[in-house]
Structure prediction request, 384 residues.
Amino acid sequence: MKKNLFLFMGIFFMFGFGFFSSENQIIASDETMKETVEEDSIIRVNIIVAGDAMCHSPQFTHAKKTKGEGYDFSDCFQYLTDILEKGDLNIVNLETTLAGAPYSGYPQFCAPDEFAVALKEAGFNFFLLANNHCADKETKGTVTTIEKVQNLQIPSAGTYLNEQDRQDRYPAIMEIKGMKIALLNYTYGTNGLTVKKPVSINYLNDTLQISKDLETAKNQNPDMIIAFLHWGNEYEQTPSDKQKEQARFFFKNGTDIIVGSHPHVIQPVEYFAYDQTDTTKKKLIYWSLGNLISNQRNPNTDGGIIADFTLAKNKNTNLVQIENHSAIPYWVYKNTSLPPGYFILPAERFLNDTTFSLSNENRAAFLRFVENTNKIITKNDTIK
Prediction:
C-alpha cells in the first residue's frame, strides 16, 4: 500500500506535459530576449471540469439550516477553492433538477436551489445539464432548472426551452482571453422519461443532429471544440465498446477533447487512437471523472477526479495546443459527527491532513480510493 501511495503522489505532481518552456536568466542575451518575445505571444486558458454533482436526500438533510429556513451546501465545496481559483473556465455536470420543493433524491432528483448556488460560489462558472436525470421532474422541472441556472447568470449546455433557445445558445461558444472555445454536451438517455416539445434535450443517439452541431461549431472558427458526454456503463472502470465507438465519431467529426461522466466511477485518461487506419492520430479523452459529490459510499463511487488542462494559443501563428493536462483526485468524506455533512477532500492535501479525525474505517476507505485511482488513471500507460 505505501509503495502505491508514493507512486500515486509522484504521478499526481507529474501527470501531464508541456510544449512551451522558458527559463529565468540573470543576464539577458539575444536568445533569452527571443524566448521572452515568444512567451509573450502565448495565450493560456486553464479549464477545470468536475464530474457528477448529485444531491441525494441525506445530503440536503445534512444541509438543512438548524436556524432559520433554507439550506447551506457551502461546506461541501470549501476545499476546492484553491483549485478553482486557477481556472478560467470551471465546468460541472449538474446531475439534478432544480424544480422546487418537495425535494427528492434517487431515483428522481430534485435539489434545493442552494445546491446550485453553492457550486457557483465555489467557483464553477459553466453547468452541463444533459444527463440521465435532467428530466426527473418532467417538462416543468427541466424548464425551471434551465431558468434558475440562467437567473444565476451561469451559461449552460445540454437542455433548451425551445428550438430558438437552442439555436441561440448551442453550441456554447466561450470567448476567454482572446481564445474561442466551443462546448457541446449530450446524454445517452433520461431513464425513460421525456420532456414535451418545444423543450429539448441533447441525445447521443441523434448522430445526424450531432453532425450538424459540430458543423455549426466549426463554422464559428473556434480554437478548440470540447464535447462533454454523459455515457458508458455505471460502475465499470473501463470504457465500453460503445463509448469507444462514440468517441471515434466525435473525434473524426472535429472534436478536439472529450470529457465523460455518468459511470459514477473513474475511468482512464488517455490520448485515444481514434483512427484505426492511422493509430498516430490521437486526441485527449477523460473517459469518466466519477462523482463530484453524492451519497454513494461503495468503493470507487466515493470520490473522483477533476480534469485540469491548459490550452495555449500562439497569437502569431494561431496554433492551439494542449500545454498540459492532469487529473486531480479527491475523496468525499461523509461526516456524521461534528461538523456533520459532506466534504470534498483533494487527495494531495488531505492524505496527511488532520483537519478531520477520520475513523479507521474512513481512513481505510480514503487510502483504498487513492490506491485504486492510481491504478485506473495509469492503466495501460494511458498518458502517451
Observations:
- Confidence is low (pLDDT under 50) at residues 1-37, 380-384.
- The chain has one domain: 2-20+31-344.
